Here is the input.
Amino acid sequence: MDVWSLLQYTLFLLVVALLVKPVGGYLARVFEGQNTFLDPALRPIERLTYRVARIDPEQEMDWKGYAVCFVLSGLAGALVLYAIQRLQRFLPWYYPEYMATPMTPDLAMNNAISFSTTTTWQAYAGESTMTYLTQTLGFVSQNFLAGASGLAVGIAFIRGLARDETDRLGNFWVDLVRASLWVLLPISLVGSLVLVALGVPMNFNHYTSATTLEGAGQVIAQGPVAALEFIKNLGTNGGGFFNVNAAHPYENPTPLTNSIEMLAIVILPASLTHTFGKMIKRPRQGWALFWVMMFLFTAGLLLAGWAERSENPRMRKANSAIQAGANLEGKEVRFGIGGSVLAAVATSTGGTGSYNSMHDSYMPLGGMIPLINMFLGEISFGGLGSGLYGIVMVALIGLFMAGLMIGRSPEYLGNLIGPAEVKLIMLYALAGPLSVLALTAIALVTRAGVAGLTTNNGPHGLTEILYAYTSCFGTNGQTFAGLSANSPFFNVTTAFAMMIGRFGHAIPALALAGRFARQKRRPVTAGTLPTDSFSFGILLVGTAVIVGGLSYFAPLALGPIIEHFILFTQSG
Here is the structure.
């Protein structure tokens, strides 16, 4: 690991740690209805929205009503986005000479579900498939709405742990409006203007034809890139305006824009830990979760950085001076290994597929780190809302295991973890392995699935398919890129994984929050396991690693681990 990469990582994590308290406190004030500095401008808009939509802001919902509204909002967004894509050839800014990818019904369906679930999995090239209008009217709006919906569920989950003897978790529509107006919209406006100032385009100009230094012709899309770029990261979405996503110089021109965009990914999920502590009135509980997240994030950075700093033995055997001493394949020179690894870890732990390098070209162990981050449930720092309830779910599993060992009923924050709660926790924990491994197995034994392996086969091909379904289930969206996924088979199966990952996690989390909210708070006694201590942090990390290992070690062994040994043994 070089000194400059370590310095970059240290500064990045320091900024995150410094922003957690003020941002987390602001989020708590927003969703508890307290005064903020934006109220004079936004309160009238909020009241008008409620009046037009006929929303009663005083009427709260139980977990079932909240979940129904969450699901309906996602399905409605998917239907609208599907219609926009199918009709884009009749709408403004459609340039047929540049639209090389046919907008088939299965591709439009996959994209609609992808963006409405914050997955933003892309089986298409952005600039040669989607018009400027589709990208802005369709994708940008869904980035806001889907991100706000995820944040709303996270807040409802916190309320379930903060309240007692009630079945009310808040009003989904109120939380959606406040998440959009007070959080995502103002931060995105400022962030997008900063990106424009740093060189990211924001226009509706026609495609530009250019001649390269070698004399070849090249067509370069323009468009409202900045409008999509910041909210895709802030809302933990990740879909790119261009095919190469944040590796494109229009989306991510400099190391400074790279750091800003990575901060946009992690700052809200990280700050939700402080919001959690404030809303349950136990700040130490929030900090305990934050430092566990920070440890896992740092471990990922160091391991991936070490792997990519290792020399590829095949390059050494070929006497390549270009990549001597490190693996530079698939990485942008303006970011280097340090900035590329930072993005790989931030996007794979944050539910955001906004990669700036090709993970398919990483060393086997380097590419395994983002995969492990997604296997662990993207809990460091996680998706918007999902990261918070994801790490709490891991904590509840750990407490249940500890309770079995000491013969005591497990509790968390005064809430008893009984048989009904354990069933919901297990439903949450098993959704990933059951869907990801089953879909991967189906793809590996069917002709339609194997047909997607047009570039690689063997262990690397297995990893490509496994990575695709893991990314889609985790509503992440990043890809190994060597998989040809624009086919009816993959468009349907990955869409299924996205829906299970979005709703199969959020609904059990809401149901569990509803059960906790109905309980009467149990007093802390000498026998209560402290959940804000260093020992609890160790338990939490150990639980995440053990559960993830038991679920996914076999496919890891057959994929990146065996590929690592093959690479080094066959290269002599």
About this structure: Strands lie at 208-211, 217-220, 411-412, 415-416. The CA atoms of residues 504 and 538 lie 28 Å apart. The chain has a mean pLDDT of 91. The two ends are 24 Å apart (CA to CA).
